[in-house]
Model the fold of this input.
Amino acid sequence: MSDIQTTRLRAMLDIAQDEMIMRDRIADLLADGRRTIPELAEALGAPTREVTVWLFGMRRYGLVEEIGRADVDGYFQYELVKRR
Amino acid sequence: MSKPDEGRRPLDYDVMVVGAGVAGMETAASMGDMGYRVLLVDKNASVGGRAILLSKVFPTLDCASCIVTPKMASVSHHPNVQLMTYSEVDSIVRNADGSFAVDLHKKASYVDFDACTGCGKCEEICTVSVADEFNYDLVTRRIAHIPFPQAVPKKAVIDRRGEAPCTFTCPANVKASGYVSLVRAGRYEEAFNLHLENAPLVGSLARACYAPCEGDCTRGDKEGTVHIRGIKRFLADRYYAEHSEPEYGPVETQLATRVAIVGSGPAGLSAAFYLAREGHQVTIFEADAEAGGMLRTGIPPYRLPKAVVDRDIKNVTALGVEIRTGQRVASLPDLKAHGFDAVLLATGASDQNGLAVEGRDLDGVVGCMKFLHDVNLGAAPDVRGKTVMVIGGGNSAMDPARAAVRLGAGRVIINYRRGRKEMPAHDWEVEGAVEEGVDLMLMSTPTRFIGENGKLVAVECIRMELGEPDASGRRRPIPVAGSETVVPVDVAVLAIGLLPSTSTFDRSMKSGKGLLVADPHTRQTADPDVFACGDCVTAPTMIINAVAEGRRAAFYMDRRLKGLSLDAPFDGVLPKTDKSIVLEEAKGFVKRSPVVQPALTVEERRQTFACYEKAMSEEEARQEALRCMNCGECSQCMECVSVCAPKCIDFSQKPTPVSLNVGSVVVSTGFKILDPATKALLGYGRYPDVISGPQMDRLLAPTRPFNAVLRPSDGKEPERIAIILCVGSRDQTVCNPLCCRIGCMYAIKQAQLAMGALPMADVTIYTIDIRAFGKGYNEFYEQARSMGVEFIKGKVARIEQLENGNLALHYEDMLGEGGRKVREHDLVVLTVGFLPNTDVFSLYKGGELAADDFGYVREVDPISEPARTNVDGLYVAGTAIGVMDIPDTVLHSGAAATQAAAYLQRIGGGQ
Done:
């Protein structure tokens, strides 16, 4: 769940800066099993919006992929792409 | 080339089209089909404009890619159309003969487009992530990137706006931004190897460099400089812990050329490293018993443990470099007689500058280099319980003073003739010394060393006051007559400057100050086979300067030995990035406080020569690396170079100016999108699930940034989508009174696509009215209604985020019951207005290109001569005259092409 925002969102460029570290942490979590974005955010202690950015940065470069369809709450689960 | 008419300038192209969106591509292709030779210029790396980023087009719901990519391919392969992407027009001037003189430049992409295969490997491995403008900042991309999947040409480009200040400032141009970026990405070995490219003594620099990079770090203007040296310490320690020996040996191609290097300090070692990497046979002659020069004997072990120096030297000797210790070179001709083809003199500056006062020869008066030499070699004088006075205020005074503390001196005094703020030593060095108990005796200088039985017992000092500034700009210290005092002292250490160690060389090789004379660029001396570098040429400086000197000398020696001209540039470095640009960009950044590098306590420091700083942990180093602001955009981590199979990355590229003569010009520079944040009450930029129309189109596109239509706040499929029309159009509050012309259909398209992608979702369009004026538009609107899209005639006043994360829309219901209403949604799309792209007006330098009342390019007679501007021969195509849909754009482009063709006929240009 997003926090209520009263000020401007954190700049995308600043969130992007964290990607190189956060993708390793996300990969560590997904190595233990598939997760949704809110589940990842809770485990990381990070805002869901920022986890969304990092996760889709990983997906763009083929590190993670979604599984099937969204659950009843509307969230997809993601897992690490198995490298050959 | 067209055959020029008599008296006419030859034309390089019949027409230049500026801007390669739909209008530009259509105009270029049309004129190409007519047989004209067309130059199509775009500032972006790909043609396609904004249309290629759309999901589908209205009212047919054809795939945008299916509409646009054939046009992109057409102009790319058309025999009469020359594409010039990633290029910007600087100036257009109309000639007297009716043609146009054009200046433009190809931007440096740092990629050889002819060789690039568009494989994307560089992008995958790039360590700098930024917001992706091609997805309207919904996701990230890399600094090395192919703009989007359908890009034409499909070539990578690398964003660089300048040299990062840290790298620019480093005398050796060590790519600090690069290894910091690699540490951030967890690639520690790559970081170490990157450092080797500019400086082989990684461990020593990680501990003893004065880090000028940190002094120029942009983060220093915010929460404090990035501790770059601390990050280097982490990567060096980690690498050396895992690799007790270098992973490489001598290079495969060994040359017969032999090089002698005199001196094994940082300059000599560095030169040897780079010469050996070129295959030369290198021998270093070192007068001392062990190699390392100043690193070995001039820096106390609490700053630089000798095991680290040993490991650094292995980086050099692993390449086959021989070091002969205990061999002082007395004669250069002897070296040549022994078969050396070239000689490098790198003897440093460790001779002591004397102090012309009585008693300087007493036992107990020593030079700082002698003192430190003995400390480093385990032969330090016994100063336990004694008083040590260090004379001088520079960094070279701090080392013996702090060493004396560790040796157990009863009292350590630094005597300096000026005040604290005039001390040339780094503040942190002075503060460290004071913390450890060193007394500062300022505004004082020795006048006499007093001895008993030939041994020092006291120093007579006189008080100083500051007079007028001297040549250095500092105020000159003047003795105060009659203020002499006597201080009991057992050991006095002179740290008042060092002299070049050049006494064995012929006077003809030296300047009046005893420095060796060498070319400032190549480091070649009067003897073309003898080079000289480092402190013996420059006077004492920092270790990193000596390293830089060594690499420079090696570069030119290598050229000399290979018979190449020395008239060649060394290290292509871009201008330094303007920090104000970086700081402006960083206004929305969170505060990132510096990671505090672990260190010994003051009491521990006083007791031991162990290194006073501890290495950062992996987590600490990566966190500190996160604070880097990527000032230069590309960090130069060089990972792209390492994976590029066709070897097409070229960091030496520079912008290429081009001057042309063309018969006619068509500007098709498009429009700009209004920043939705200007409508502050609607929450864009504050609530992540309030997005713009172009962002929604990306979410709906087949090449979407997410795996489905998801809301950006948490990746959830939205269930209740609101689309608000006329955000910043027909709106005097943002000075944009125009109807955007396409917003209604654009929004209805998105509503239909959203319902297709999310069958369970409710979609509501908030509108003042629906303008469905085009062919099939009203049917398109009715189709949306029949699909279940709800239309609310009402103006949305503001949006608030609820505790459950959803968004409450406050609007005025203009039909039905009327009054103020609130509706809850979980994704809100703002159909934003569009603005003129006024950049076009700065292109034409031959007068004024006329604008209409709204800031778009003015057509002088849109009814009878569409596309004609006030400049004869310069035409306008597409949305540069005002936003329109794609069919109208294509139509208008045809008009522009026809006008330009007619003009070319009129002036007798073209084919």
Summary: The first helix of chain A runs from residue 12 to 17. The beta strands of chain A are 64-67, 77-80. Helices of chain A lie at 12-17, 19-31, 37-44, 48-60.
